Description:
61% helix, Rossmann fold, Zinc Finger, Delta Prime, domain 3, globular, 15 helices
Amino acid sequence: MSFDAPPVVVVSGNEVYLRRRQVRKAIIAANADGWRVEHLTGEDPAHLRRVLASGSIFFKGRTLAIVCDPQKLDPQLIISHANRKNSKVTLILHCEGLLRKTGNLRKIVEGIPKKYHIAFQSPAQYKRDEFCMGHVVKDAREVYGLRLQEKTAKALINAAGTNLGILAFELQKAAMLAKVDGDVEVTSSHIGKTLSRLTETGAIPVVDALAARDEARLVRALASVRRTHTGDPTLKVVALISRNVVQWIQAVCLVNQKAGEQEIAQRIGLHPWICKTKVVPPARNWGLKNLKSLLTALARVERAVKSGQVAPWVQLETSLISAIQAAREK
């Protein structure tokens, strides 16, 4: 956070980890420079006005204010502050999700220089792996000063999934081990020694592949889960997938009833962003009939495990692949 920081910055986007990291970087920099950091909400205009008043010549020090829920802010007030010279207060308007096409926040964005609107938008699902690979390789270089080959990054993504927060955590562990070993490159060996063995972490790529109805990704993800577990992970993986499928069924039923995204999120009990990006798309992609068939197949696998049948993991693999193929044919 340099002392020529602009009076107003808008940070938005549906790529949660990158958006929050941007805000966190600003807070860390402000603290390092001795700034006072305030957290407030757009629903409390009185608090905001007090913070802005602290930027007058009669007050010492500088302030960074993180404003959540900025959609209800007064555009005229914020744009007026943005045009102030030598302001001692910098506002970061933190918008959780993509910027709406209309509304107060859109007016604010249109009233400040474009370079002060920092947006983090998730790519299309089919570009997700490449998007994550680029960020992991970049973070290895810029954050840890280490090389990371694309094929190694791809292996990490296949094992840990495409959640950038989880990938950052796994990269941090592998990078620390590489530094301890005196290496200048994060290798598959470092990742293999530090990769989380938690079933739900390992099974996230399975859910992602299933959501996209991507048979090839599913096969790779299942193989990765099986390879990284000493015991039989079938039951826990079935439980994780089933929880997601139930949410998809709930979502597709509400979609068929013409419910809006906010209502769907509220009725399922999820954050609106999670619902919009992780639940509704696979619900639409599969459809109610196919999801019911998938849930029935998962129940059969669960019964196979609990009744002591031979090779339940193989049954899980064939059931999921068959479900994707059947959905594609309908």
